[in-house]
# Entry
Amino acid sequence: MFTILIDSQKQIPIYQQIYEYIKEEIKNGNLVYQDKLPSSRGLASHIAVSRNTVDLAYSQLVSEGYIEARPKSGYYVCDMSQLVDIKTHPVDTVLEKEEKKQQYEYDFSFQGVDMNYFPYNRWRKLLKEVMINDNSDLFQIGHRQGDFEFRRAIKEYLHQSRGVNCSENQIMIGAGSDYLLMLLSRILGTNHKIAMENPTYLSSYRTLKELGFEIQPIEVKEKGMDIKQLEESDASLAYVTPSHQFPTGTVMPISRRIQLLSWARKGENRYIIEDDYDSEFRYLGKPIPALQNNDTEGKVIYIGTFSKAIAPAIRISYMVVPKELMKKAKATLSCYSCTVSRIDQAVLGRFLQEGYFERHINKMRKIYKTKHDRLVKALAIFGDDIRILGESAGLHLVIELKTQINEKRFEEECEKGSIKITAMKEFFIEPVKQESSKYLLGFARLREDKIEEAVEKLYRACYTCV
Amino acid sequence: MFTILIDSQKQIPIYQQIYEYIKEEIKNGNLVYQDKLPSSRGLASHIAVSRNTVDLAYSQLVSEGYIEARPKSGYYVCDMSQLVDIKTHPVDTVLEKEEKKQQYEYDFSFQGVDMNYFPYNRWRKLLKEVMINDNSDLFQIGHRQGDFEFRRAIKEYLHQSRGVNCSENQIMIGAGSDYLLMLLSRILGTNHKIAMENPTYLSSYRTLKELGFEIQPIEVKEKGMDIKQLEESDASLAYVTPSHQFPTGTVMPISRRIQLLSWARKGENRYIIEDDYDSEFRYLGKPIPALQNNDTEGKVIYIGTFSKAIAPAIRISYMVVPKELMKKAKATLSCYSCTVSRIDQAVLGRFLQEGYFERHINKMRKIYKTKHDRLVKALAIFGDDIRILGESAGLHLVIELKTQINEKRFEEECEKGSIKITAMKEFFIEPVKQESSKYLLGFARLREDKIEEAVEKLYRACYTCV
# Structure
C-alpha cells in the first residue's frame, strides 16, 4: 500500500499531493508498466481522505497519460520506458543585457521625434472616453483591414493633406511599416526584383531583403531615382520616397513622377511602393501631393505611418492598395487579423476626426521649423566650408563638408565629444559608394536652446581633423 | 502678364492661389516648356501682394517640378510633355459591405469568449495608472521582442501555470498568433514540410499554407498525432495542440509527448510548434503542463495567446523560442519592430503581475465550468443517441450522433432554427475525411440560462432529420 504523507497544512491541495506522489513513484521506477494502483475507494480510506479527492488525482494522472483506466478492472501504470528522457532542463538565468541606446549630449540623430510636445492629456482623455463609451464592442474581434470608421478617418486625412485618392476598402491598417511590407510580400509574392533608391532608408532595404526580394540599387540623381537605370533593370517593383527622398532630402519633380508612372504601366506586374514617411513636415509652402495622387492606373502602393507625426511607439501604419490589386489580395489577407488593437484605432480615429491631429501637426511643424531654421543659421559659422543639401522638409538635413577632412578622425572626434551624427555613406546599399564628407543632421531630438552649442562642438570636431 | 484673380476673402492663402493658377496654366498648355515667368518682384507689384508671397508660390512650383530657376535669369516652365497623363482618377464610392457576422439565437460557435465578465473597470484603471505614471517613456520605441518587464511577467505566468521553462530573452511578443507564425516563417524559412494534426485548427492551417509551407496532414488517433505516420513522412516541423487537441479535445499523454520529442531530436532542423491556445480552461484537476516543459533539447517552439483568456481584440500573443534557435533568429528579427503597443504591454503586464489575470482566469474557469456541466447535463435528453467526446477542458466539446441522420438536412434545420453549430468534417485538411455525425458545441458565448433551451432546439432539429 502507498504511504503518502498528506499534509493538510500545506498550501498544495491534497489531490495534488497524491498526484505528485504517484507521478514521482512512476518517474523513479517504483511503479512500473502494468502495475495496478489501489482502487480509489481503498486508497481514500487508507490515507483518510474523501474518495472524490483520490478520483481527482487519478483523473489528472489519466489525463496526462501516466496511468490508464481499464474498464471493470482498475487503474494501471502506462508504458513509461522512455520516461528517462524527461528531466527538467536548466534555464539560462544569466540575462542578456538589454540593448541600451547610447545617450548623446548633442543628438543629431536622424531618427526619433521630439516627444516633449506630445499631447498626453488629450490622448489620455480620448482613451478614457473610448473606454467608457464603446466598451464591450472594442474587445471583440474587429475587421482584418482595421475598423471601418478608423479607415474612413485615415482616408479623409490622406485625401486632404496628401491628395491620396482611395476608398476605405483599399486601406490596410498594420502595426508598423515593416509589418505592412511583410504583408505586402505575401500579397505580391517575393518573386520580384525591387528597384530601390541608392542611398535609401536602410531599414526598409534590410526588411525587403530579409523578406526574400532581390534588390536592384538605382542611383539617386537630382530628380530622384534614375529612370534610365530603372528602365534598363529588370525590376518589377520600385520602392521610392518621392516627397522627401531619404536620406538626400530631394523632392521628386512632377516630370520624374510621370516617367516613373509610365514605367510602371509598361508591365502588368509592375508596382511602385511609395513610402511617404515624413511628409507632414514641410516648412516652405504647402505639402507636396503624394505620387499616388497622380496614379490613374492602380500602380502605386502607398505606405505611411503615424510614428513620425505622433510618436515612435504608436505602432500604427497604413497602406493604400490599388483597387484591382486589393481584389487579388483578399484571399491572402483572409489569413491575417489586424495587428493594431481596436482601442488604439478608436483613440487615433478620434484624434484625427476631431481635429487634434491637424493641430498637433501644425504645432510640431512650427517647432521643427524653428529648430530647422536655427540649425541652418548656426551652421553659418562654417562659412563656405559646408553646403546644406535637401529640401526644407522632414526632420533632418544634409551637410556636405567642402574642406578636406579625415573622416574617420572626424567621426571619432564626434563620438568623443558626445555628438551623434550619421554619415551619408552609411545609407548606401552595398557596394558602398563613397559619398565623401556628407552627413545627416537630424534636429527633432535636439533641444532648441542647445542647437548653437551643438553646432559649435561639431565645428570644433571638424577643424581638429582638417 | 498674368491675370490672377486674387480673392483675399477666401480661406485659401494667397500664395496658394498664385500657385494653383500657374499650375493650371501649365496643365492647360497656356504656359509651355521654356516659357519664362514674370519675375517675382514684377508679379508681386502687378497683383499687389508682397514679394514674399510670390516667392513662396514659386518655391512650391519649383519643389514640385513645374518650373525651374535658372541662375541670374529667372523662372522657366519645365518640360511637361507627358503631363497629359495626369488626371485625377475617379474613386470608388460604392462601399463594399462590411462583412457582418450572422447573429444566432443559439450560438454554439467554437470561437469567441464570454465578454460579459471582462474586467473593464480594472483594465480602465490600470490603463489610467499606466498613462499617468510612465507617460513619455511609453511613447518612445520599445524593444523589438517586447518590453522586458512584460516579458518577465509572461515568463513567470508561463512557468507557474504551464510549466514552461524559459528566460525573458526567449520570449517574443506579437500582435496575434498569425503574426507570430508569419515571423516564425521568416526565422525558419518556408523550405519545410509541416506535419499537422488532421483534423486541426484550420485557421493555422490556412496561414501556414499561405506562408508557403508544404503541409503534411497526419491522422489524430486516440493519443493525438499518429507518430508512425509522422516518422514516415519527410516533415521537419510538427504543429501540435497537445494540451487540448483542436478540435477533438484529446490530451496528448506523456508517452506520445516523449515520442514526439524524440522524433524532433532526430534531425537538426526538426522543431515542434506547440500551440497552447486555450489551456487556461481545464475543469478537472490541475492544468496539464505544456509539452515545452518536457523539452530538454530546444526543440519546442511554444505559442500562446491572450485572445481566449481575456478578449479576442487583445491582440497580444507570445512565442517562446528555444535558446539556440533564438541566437540564429536575431539577425532576422532585427528587421521587425514589436507589433504590440507599449501601453498595451504595460497594462497587461500589470494585469498579470498584480494577480488580476489569475483571478480573472479563476472566475472564468468557474463560469465556463458551469456552462460546460450544464451543457453536458442538458445533452442527456439525447439519451444513448449521442456520445460526448473530448476532455473536460477548453471552450467547446464534441458530440457524436449515433442515430443515422441526414446531415445536410440537420445542418439546414439548425440554420433555420438560428442554431450555430459546426461539423467536425469542416476541420479536416483536404481531402476531407468524412467524419460523420460529429459536431463541435462551443459554450463560451451561450447564455447560461439559455443552455437547456438551446439543447432542446438542437434535439428537435436532429429528430426531424432521422
User: Anything to note?
Assistant: Chain A is about 35% helix and 15% strand. Chain A touches chain B through 105 residues (CB under 8 Å). Residues 154 and 409 of chain A are 47 Å apart (CA to CA). The domain at 14-77 of chain A is CATH 1.10.10.10 (Arc Repressor Mutant, subunit A).
